[in-house]
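Limitations

Structures in this collection are predictions, not experimental determinations, and the ligand pose is part of the prediction. Treat each record accordingly. The example that follows, with 5'-deoxyadenosine as the small molecule, is included so readers can see exactly what is and is not provided: the inputs are given verbatim, and the output is the predicted complex.
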Amino acid sequence: MKDFKSVRPIIDEKRPGLYIETYGCQMNVNDSEVILSILEGQGYALCEDMDRADIIVINTCAIRDNAEQRIWGRLDVFRQLKKKHPVTVCIVGCMAERLKDKLLEHPAVDIVAGPDSYRELPALIRNLSEAGNGKQINVILSSEETYADISPVRMDKNGVSAYISIMRGCNNVCSYCVVPYTRGVERSRDYRSILREAEELAANGYKEINLLGQNVDSYLWKGDGQTINFAALLKMAAELLPEIRFRFSTSHPKDISNEVLDTMAAYDNICKHIHLPVQSGSSRMLELMRRKYDREWYLERIRKIREIMPECAITTDIIAGFCTETEEDHRDTLSLMEEVGFDGAFMFQYSERPGTLAARHYQDDVPEETKTRRLNEIIQLQNRISLERNRKEIGKRMSVLIEGVSKRSESELFGRASSNKVCVFPANGYKTGEYAEVEVTGCTSATLIAKTL
Ligand code: 5AD
Ligand code: SF4
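Predicted complex:
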């Protein structure tokens, strides 16, 4: 997970400045773009420098305790800033939803808005400035809000790859997860507004679109006598814009259907990468996590993916040290990782979130040092597996969508292959936004090194 700061400079210095910081997942990045769109409509202009901002928006994450600790740290910075010049500080997103009034009590905070309240931001700001109205809060969750009619104002740096939220919320109550409480129930966005947004992006020169949702496989839109599932949406998008490369995340192992896999296989412009969080290799843990699948089910899905798309990259999320996890459960995770051979993984140690099923019903009984040791073992193993997987790419030719100049050298570019693997190669006249045909000549556990053809 990365942090994303405002990247476009103030367009018009006469307009009030809006500084946005985004934490957490890609959904939040997209939400910040929705917020920017709403506030631009009110006359604000994005600025890079918080010292020049009239409004600061912090889009927060609540998934693990350390995500929230960072925000408390930022709030102290804003408290100092407020001593220098008047600025309105809005805390939005998942942590705003979870902690509500507690955040409002912080001296730096003026406005608290949850993930379904962004349309209310202009009113909250107005109320705040009307004398005597004090701090403002709106954390009402909705069962319908999808921001379908709002065209997000893109904040990405490269103008190549963009995100479209296709659904919001989550109906899976995984016992460790705070998301159902912060983002509410699942709702799918009208497919026509998704396709329209994709067309807009294509018209603006974007080359790659990521379809986003907490659980994209349960995308289901019903209306006007039609029922559109995720496979149908993917197919329509791939056919409507054959020059655009589509990706999606996140998939859920219990829901990813053969129909989706067949659709991926049928279209060259749907990238061959699936992010399929497993969380644990122990069926006993999976049961306690309420994941609704077991180790065998997960391995069957992997077999099916590989049968239909042998070249498809698979990445995952893993949690170390969930409640009651034994050494045997932990070894089950390590052995599953070996068996699958993930191309990459996001790996975390369990962090109890207040209010979740796990916090209410189980004891967070794995000692901190055991969690850390297990996490380190998982990370070490994954580094080895990622390197092995990348080595298998050496000698292969692939098409890489160029995202920019490599950090290491001005004369090198980087981009992603269909597998989502980052690939670095000599520029040789290629430019950002173009496809380069390359042959992989080497690798690290994180990067493919290639030459152009
Ligand atoms: N503690 C640690 N990791 C968590 N995740 C979700 N909730 C928690 C938690 N309480 C991880 C899962 C999920 C990813 C986005 O974050 O692996 O897939
Ligand atoms: Fe994204 Fe989940 Fe963090 Fe919310 S809690 S920002 S949905 S990762």
